[in-house]
Specification:
With 475 residues, this protein is an alpha+beta fold. Helix content is 18%, strand content 31%.
Length: 475
């Protein structure tokens, strides 16, 4: 059974005082109410009530609380009696109990004192086992002498253990072993992950519950309540592992400051003895809560949104082909300041200025690990070869956009290629006068007409001269 929130109480044996008058003044009858537990055959001692053949091993209800008695053979507590703290638990005669055993008693009361929610047979066996252990401890190791009266006689542990049913005997062994392994006092820690925390991504927090001092042993099977802010968990109650390993809890941050607070009930070093307000020499003393304490610890860290990326593609505006070797500067939205990396530091190059990236063979460049959300811009630093004709250094090509958590922002920049050169050839005697000119001069059609006219006139003149020569040769 996991550690429930335990209302500690103290086990005890019911001793109604029929024959107690020999050793004490007559007592008014008390209204006695029992809780979970078992009747076992009575231990013989002088003055034992003859009309009651049993000893009660289990809980009493006192003031509405489950309680266990620690003064074997004295009268059972009045259910309406008032009990007040009266120092540290001692044996039946006021003798000291060693510190480790006291710590074990506190643990037993915390872990096993409350039987709420258990099946009746399980609850009865467990309560009887707790009562048996407590009476064994508070008998101080003295032998049981049947010739002694109620105020002097010690609890006969071997006799009562033998009379318990096997289930209760098994509980006695289990509870004692558990108490030896997990007695208090305890300390607890909450340790957040060392890695950067991402909002929306679960990571493991470590919760440890261990003995405070001594061997520092891990405490097993302890229920721990979780209260989480800026985060969420699968369950708000977890239990420390049975193998003693640290408890790992997945916490998913939902905000910038995830915090995990743990609360657990824990035994303190020494259970407190409760003394009845009437006739304390003849009525049972009890332990209600065993000195149950509470532990609260907190762990905290910070978280950011998932990083984002930007992928820039540089293309030829005519063909759509990627352009390699283009330098692009990544900036904040103002096109001057630096963009931010995931950790908030500026995205700068070695020169301390906003980072410059160069497109690869496919015309793309990618920058990862950017803080989100943020607006960024990508600005061309210089025109690549073959694209300088249309490049304006005072207003270079650029593109801007918003990077979202866990996403890649795709940006595209296009460059217009230079105007291609046009080869110009003018035949003259079969040899080109101008070939592949870088600059082409375009002539006006009217001017070409004028030139053509001159050619015609010139040819006409030549013909006239030839006719005149022919006439002269004839005459």
């Amino acid at each position: 059974m996991g550690l429930s929130k335990l209302v500690a109480g103290v086990t005890g044996i019911t001793m109604l005082v029929a024959g107690l008058g020999v050793l004490a003044p007559p007592l008014a009858s008390a209204a006695t109410q029992t809780g979970a537990g078992l009747n076992v055959p009575k231990q013989p001692y002088k003055g034992s009530p003859a009309n009651d053949p049993n000893d009660w091993l289990g809980q009493y209800i006192v003031g509405g609380k489950a309680a266990y008695c620690v003064r074997f053979a004295l009268a059972a507590p009045d259910s309406g009696a008032t009990y007040t703290p009266d120092g540290t638990l001692t044996d039946k005669w006021g003798g000291a109990i060693d510190p480790k055993t006291l710590s074990e008693v506190s643990y037993i009361l915390l872990r096993y004192g409350d039987t709420t929610g258990l099946a009746a047979d399980v609850a009865n066996a467990q309560a009887a086992a707790v009562a048996h252990i407590l009476h064994s401890i508070t008998s101080g190791g003295r032998p049981a002498d049947p010739n002694q009266g109620p105020t002097e006689v010690a609890y006969d542990a071997p006799l009562h253990l033998k009379e318990l049913p096997q289930s209760a005997q098994d509980d006695v062994a289990k509870i004692k072993a558990d108490a030896d392994a997990n007695y208090g006092p305890w300390k607890a820690t909450v340790t957040p992950p060392t890695a950067a925390q991402i909002i929306g991504t679960a990571d493991k927090w470590t919760i440890s519950v261990a003995r405070d001092g001594g061997d520092g042993a891990a405490i097993k099977g302890v229920p721990v309540k979780l209260t989480v802010t800026d985060g969420k968990v699968d369950s708000d109650t977890v239990t420390t592992p049975a193998d003693g390993s640290p408890l790992a809890v997945n916490v998913t941050p939902t905000g910038p400051n995830p915090t995990v607070k743990i609360d657990l009930d824990a035994p303190i070093a020494t259970p407190k003895l409760q003394k009845p307000d009437k006739d304390p020499g003849n009525f049972q003393w009890t332990v209600f809560t065993g000195g149950q304490g509470a532990i609260t610890e907190t762990g905290k860290t910070t978280a950011t949104t998932a990083p984002g990326s930007v992928k820039v593609t540089k293309v030829d505006s005519k063909t759509g082909a990627g352009i390699a070797g283009v330098q692009l500067r990544v900036t904040a939205a103002d096109k001057t300041g630096s963009a931010a990396k995931q950790d908030g530091s500026p995205l700068n190059g070695t020169d301390g200025k906003p980072l410059v990236v160069t497109t690869g063979a496919d015309g793309t460049a990618t920058v990862d690990g950017l803080k989100t959300p943020q607006d960024i811009c990508v600005i061309e630093v210089a025109a690549p070869a073959g694209y300088d004709e249309n490049f304006n250094a005072s207003s270079p090509p650029n593109a801007c956009g918003a990077i979202q958590a866990g996403q890649t922002l795709a940006l595209k920049l296009a460059n217009t290629p230079n105007t291609p050169t046009v080869p110009v050839r003018i035949p003259a005697g079969g040899s080109p006068m101008v070939a592949d000119a870088a600059t082409v001069t375009t002539l006006d059609p009217a001017a070409l007409g004028a030139v053509g006219g001159l050619v015609v006139i010139a040819l006409g003149g030549v013909g006239l001269m030839l006719r005149r020569r022919r006439h002269a040769s004839r005459g």
